[in-house]
């Protein structure tokens, strides 16, 4: 049964589950405490599983008075514990660990037994090894080490730190064992124990892992090792590099797919191999899965290629449509340019002041010359007409070129003059009160703008704006000097 008592006090057949916060406190106040006299046994849950493979109730009852038992769920709790402990003295992923009294930050990780659990069968084995390590040979569990003589029964008496430290199970260095048996180029069995987005780590022996880079997992493109591998899975690897002194290595899964692996090795000579070599059936199954993954990748690539071809066909169709629109626009532009040339030729032959028709034609040519298609949409030309005395006044007004008058008339007729700073467009007022000048006959409003600036005699353009149902009509009324505010009615 579980308890909420502090783990350092629990040796009465109960156990406790540690969360992330409790794990940090547990590491500092219990595991690393110099006054601790009992070993601590931690069991963890496999990744993504809520319950451990070893029954904590049974283990705690069997170790009552001899050890403290705690349970941690793999995840935040084991991460917090690992962060609070010295390097390589943590436990996670369904494994179990024994921390003997006297644990310090300088302790050798191999002095504090780490026991990996792969399945129900290995869980029973590890359960027995824990009992044997702590209780000695007083139970059948003490015979776990392949028939070796069980150690003498430890009498159940008051805790003795010297005695408890003496019953530790010696753990050989796995890298020394690997260096004795394996060499680069060997194809050997291994077990996946960690997956990272950039690589996978596989164990050759407990505590001895080598890295498999992303590009060495499969001959097909692998985006994430978790897509093709699972923690605890047995795989064959080809050893690419081995550095026992640096306790690291590099391996390839894909290069071992068609190779016959060597037999696995045990931590101690004579023990059962930590990872047995794959059978022919298992190798065939791996190959079938690899072929299936390749087919899935090919199918996905085929779908992506078909989608890309659809996009290309759609874009090609859009390009053809745009080419057609551009061709039509070029024809329209050519037609407009031709019309402008005709109008310019006609205007050159005619005196703009000869008649109302000649003057308005000159204004339309000026508008067509000065405004492109986009501007013509923003500033459409309004209806125009010429007042009865406008042409005569224009002929008699000296000091300004008629082309300038035509240019400003074009600006006025499309409402562009209102936005030109030097035109000074404003209503033509009358009297001291400055009232707007309005023609009584049709309600037209009088306007005025500058043809020239910078002198008292600068010329001005006067016109009437006649509001109608279908839009305004601009009636050019007169041209005059600056001080002339008259406008013909």
Describe the structure.
By secondary structure, this protein is an alpha+beta fold. The protein folds into 3 domains: about 5-165, 3-Layer(aba) Sandwich (Glutaredoxin), CATH 3.40.30.10; about 175-280, Beta Barrel (OB fold (Dihydrolipoamide Acetyltransferase, E2P)); about 380-480, YaeB-like fold, CATH 3.30.2310. Helix content is about 35%, strand content about 20%. The protein is built from 11 helices and 17 strands. It has helices spanning about 20-30, 55-60, 75-85, 120-135, 160-165, 175-180, 280-350, 355-370, 375-380, 390-395, 400-415; strands at about 15-20, 40-45, 70, 95-100, 115, 185-195, 200-205, 210-215, 235-245, 250, 385, 425, 430, 435, 445-450, 460-465, 475-480. The strands form 4 sheets. It has a 5-stranded mixed sheet. A 5-stranded antiparallel sheet has the order 8-7-6-9-10, with helices on one face. Strand 16 (about 460-465) and strand 17 (about 475-480) form a beta hairpin. Helix 1 packs parallel to helix 3 and helix 8 crosses helix 11. About 30% of the residues are buried. Mean pLDDT is about 80; it is low at about 1-5, about 135-160 and about 160-170.
Notable traits:
489 residues, alpha+beta, Glutaredoxin, OB fold (Dihydrolipoamide Acetyltransferase, E2P), YaeB-like fold, 3 domains, five-stranded mixed β-sheet, 11 helices, 34% helix, disordered N terminus
